[in-house]
Amino acid sequence: MANSYIQLHFVALFFLASLTIPSNCLPGLYPKAPVALFVFGDSLFDPGNNDFIKTTTTFQANFPPYGETFFKLPTGRFTDGRIIPDFIAEFAKLSLIPPYLQTGYHEFLTNGVNFASGGAGALAETNTGLVIDLKMQFKNFRKAKKHLRLNIGKRAAKRVVKNAVYLFGIGSNDYLSPLTNNSSIFKLYAPQDYVAMVVGNITSVVQKIHREGGRKFGILNLGPLGCLPRLRAANVAAGGNGECVEQVTALAKLHNVLLSQKLQLLQKRLKDFKYSYFDVFAASIATVQNPSKFGFKEVKSACCGSGPFRGYFSCGGKRGMKEYELCDNPKDYLFFDANHPTEAANLQSAEAMWGGPPNITGPYNLQSLFHSGTDLKSFECLLDFLAGLSAVLFRRQEIVLGFYLDLYGKMEESLARAFQRFELSAKETEGIDLSGDDIEEGMLGCTGSLLGKLVGDKVANFTGVKNYINHAWGYPRRMKITELGPNLFQFHFEEEEEKKKALTGGPWIMDNQVFVLREWEVGWA
Asked: Which pTM does this prediction carry?
């Protein structure tokens, strides 16, 4: 046994790039219509909706120096330039997502729209009458959906809603507003009960959007709220030295634990529910502990404001205090004003959300959610094309594995069969030689196994693959992973349900490369 060798031939899916595929087949891989982005949230995500409501300058940023880094004028965004949704739209090859209240009936909204409102909370009682709370944002979404149906038709609107990504960033004002306004709310509710109400309102809207047809969600947790310049300044005013206010940060921690738990439950309960959970808290702590690693020089004080740590919300001189200080280079700062990050910080958050590792952004990152929005019908042309390819020849002592790209979790059997009928070129049939005792032992227990190929040019680190797979698949009990060759792996399962979940729950995308899975069949070895 030790002296024998096993030669595996696998189908390199990327050989499609070298074939002449009819142009009308390409929409199956790259849809004609981009995946839309619908945004819900507070001032971290507000692109200017509050400019169109009756409110106060506390909840507006339509005056200098806001917007001056990128737009060269104020746009209503609470930062010096772009906000996180702006960058996500750019990564997804969309134009800037407009404020909902700025849009007119003439706009089709097929790229999405932003409903976020500065100062908004998940609770209607948070800054009531001055902002657009989450419940009202959902009502606006339903109005936008109605406009879509009227403008592009019922079927097309349904497709837009289903393929879209829904981005949520809300909750901080539900904790900050009562504390800074000396509200008695925390005398009426235990912290756990209050947090349950906030998280419950967020997940309730998520479920409502799911009932409306939405399937893919990007959700931010809360950062260490007690470390905002605003709270550090409050600590100084109370006789402290500018430390983080742990009472507020403790609420954020409770919120994050419960939100994560609720999202995991929704994933089990709701059909085709996929989500990306960005750990703002962990990312913020890492930045504060090692600023230079992330390109920052100042992570405690704001760029714009007054008082200790420039933590008074006076940036722009329109909020009751006319005097304020402004730094020379906002890129050096984590915070632009007393409450909000700089464009530079927003970019780093967006990059982590888009393609970050599972320990920061999971179980999916936003890139994988955007790339999983292709319409199955667009594969019909590709199927016709593949049907003309001849069958792969099986040779003695050789195994030819036909891998198929499971972009949709439940791809039609006809497509899977079609991917097994590729004709390989001479170069592609050269194969990969795998030999050695360790590999042979790993191939012995093949029953209950999946074979996985990471398709792409980069050779993945085995430890990184194990970390990604375990996190993405929910840490299957007693699953064994064996590296068979460069980007080629065996996954052996003790439980059939765990194997089925991995096989049908994709797509699985690691570092911009797709995992293609195939169930092991008797007689291959």
From this structure: 0.69
